[in-house]
Amino acid sequence: MEKALWYLIAGTRGGENRARIIRALEAKPRNANQLAEELDVGYNTVRHHLEMLEDHDVVERGGRTYGELYFLTDRFMRHWDEFETITEHLE
User: Fold this and answer.
1) Where are the domains of the chain?
2) Of 3, 12, 54, 57, which one is least surrounded by beta carbons within 10 A?
3) How far is CA 84 from CA 51, 57, 65, 77, in A?
4) In CATH, what number does 2-88 get?
5) How far apart, in Å, do the first and last CA atoms of the chain sit?
6) pTM (2 decimals)?
């Protein structure tokens, strides 16, 4: 998981937005539209980042329909400290 987090957050152009999405989901579950509005990022951009995060087991969907909520996975939460370390390098 640590390597995946370094790649997702610090190793690619969208890392800062993915970190913002993770922080928003840590506060409470949201759907893609809510995230787009709250973060002032395009809906398609948010969907792209959510798909990447889902592919790497950082987030999971609470359903498979339009408007489904996204949650942080238990596996990711066990690596929260590593996430914090990585995001320090973004600033």
Assistant:
1) 2-88
2) 3
3) 21, 17, 31, 11
4) 1.10.10.10
5) 22
6) 0.92
d(CA 91, CA 77): 22
DSSP strands (E only) in 1-91:
59-61, 70-72
What is the sign, positive or negative, of the torsion defined by CA atoms of 78, 85, 39, 43? negative
Separation of alpha carbons 46 and 39, rounded Å: 9
Here the tokens at position 26 are 């840590």
Could you report the per-residue pLDDT of 35-45, keeping only the tens digit for each? 999 999 999 99
| Tokens matching residue 24 | 């928003």
Nearest Cα to Cα of residue 58 among 16, 11, 23, 10? 23
Let me know: does 24 contact 30? Beta carbons within 8 Å: yes
Summarised one tens digit per residue, pLDDT across range 4-22 is 999 899 888 899 999 999 9
Separation between Cα atoms, residue 37 and residue 39, nearest integer Å: 6
